[in-house]
C-alpha cells in the first residue's frame, strides 16, 4: 500500500488518497495475534453521544466507586500483606503472559514468512497484469479522525497503474481546494473526475453521505 497524498482539513480530519497494491483486505495477520493488535481497515460509524443526564450519572458512579475503594485507618494492617501478595502474583502472571506471547509469536513466525512470500509472488503477478491493463488498479480515499477511526472509506478501481496515479493526484488536489468530504455521487466535480478516468466505485461508506455497498 502506497500513500500518495495526505490532505488535512481545518477540522483536523486527515484525508489520504492511497493506491493499494492488494486488491482485497488482509484477513490473516499471524504476527499481530500474540500482541492483540489485530488491525482493522473498515468504516467505523460515530458512537451515539451521551446525554447530560447520562454523563452526570456516570460521574456520580465513578466518584462513588473511588470512595468505596479508599483504604482508611486500621484497614492497612490486614490489607497490606494481601496487597503485597496480589502485587507479586500480578507480576508473575504478567511474566507468564509475556512468555506465552513470545512462544505463540515463534510458532506463528513460519506462517508469517509464508504469507510474505505469497504476497511477493502475488504482487509480481498483479503488477505485470496492471502494466498490461489486464487487471484494474485500486485507489482508496480514506478519512481518519482522532484515534485513527475511519470516518469515510471509498474503494475505487481503474484500469492501469498510471491512470490510478493520475486519479489519486486529481482527487487529492480537489479535496485540498474544496475542503469538504469526498462524495463520488453528489459532488459534480468528483463525478466528472471519476468518469474521465473510467473509475468503478466498488463501495463508499461515509458519515457525511449515504453508504453504497459493494456491487
List keywords for this structure.
215 residues; alpha+beta; five-stranded antiparallel sheet; 48% helix; 19% strand
Summarize the structure.
The chain has 215 residues and is of the alpha+beta class. 48% of the residues lie in helices and 19% in strands.
Describe the model.
The protein is an alpha+beta fold. The chain is built from four helices and five strands. The longest helix has 58 residues, at 75-132. The chain is flat and about 80 Å long. The relative contact order is 0.16. The mean pLDDT is 78.
Topology, element by element:
Elements (H helix, E strand, L loop, with lengths): L1 E7 L5 E7 L31 H18 L5 H58 L3 E9 L5 E10 L1 H18 L9 H9 L3 E7 L9
Antiparallel strand pairs: 1-2, 2-3, 3-4, 4-5
- Could you give the order of the helices and strands? EEHHEEHHE
Amount of beta strand: 15-25%
Given as residue ranges, the uncertain stretches (5+ residues, pLDDT < 50) are none
Strand order of the largest sheet: 1-2-3-4-5
What class do helices, strands and sheet pairing give?
Answer: alpha+beta
Question: Main sheet, how many strands, which sense, barrel?
Answer: 5 strands, antiparallel
Helix content: 40-55%
- Number of β-strand runs: 5
**What general outline do the C-alpha atoms trace?**
flat
Amino acid at each position: 500500500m502506497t500513500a500518495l497524498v495526505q490532505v488535512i482539513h481545518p477540522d483536523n480530519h486527515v484525508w489520504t488518497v492511497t493506491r493499494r497494491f492488494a486488491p482485497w483486505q488482509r484477513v490473516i495477520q499471524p504476527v499481530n495475534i500474540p500482541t492483540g493488535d489485530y488491525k482493522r481497515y473498515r468504516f467505523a460509524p460515530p458512537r451515539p453521544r451521551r446525554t447530560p443526564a447520562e454523563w452526570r450519572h456516570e460521574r456520580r458512579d465513578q466518584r462513588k466507586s473511588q470512595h468505596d475503594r479508599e483504604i482508611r485507618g486500621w484497614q492497612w494492617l490486614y490489607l497490606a500483606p494481601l496487597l503485597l501478595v496480589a502485587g507479586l502474583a500480578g507480576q508473575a502472571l504478567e511474566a507468564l503472559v509475556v512468555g506465552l506471547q513470545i512462544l505463540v509469536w515463534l510458532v506463528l513466525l513460519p506462517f508469517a514468512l509464508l504469507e510474505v512470500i505469497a504476497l511477493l509472488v502475488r504482487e509480481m503477478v498483479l503488477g505485470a497484469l496492471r502494466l498490461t491493463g489486464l487487471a484494474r488498479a485500486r485507489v482508496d480515499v480514506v478519512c481518519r479522525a482522532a484515534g485513527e477511526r475511519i470516518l469515510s472509506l471509498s474503494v475505487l478501481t481503474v484500469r492501469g497503474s498510471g491512470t490510478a496515479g493520475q486519479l489519486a493526484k486529481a482527487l487529492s488536489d480537489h479535496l485540498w481546494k474544496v475542503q469538504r468530504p469526498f462524495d463520488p455521487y453528489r459532488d459534480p466535480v468528483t463525478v466528472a473526475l471519476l468518469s474521465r478516468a473510467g473509475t468503478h466505485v466498488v463501495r463508499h461508506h461515509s458519515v457525511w453521505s449515504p453508504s453504497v455497498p459493494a456491487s
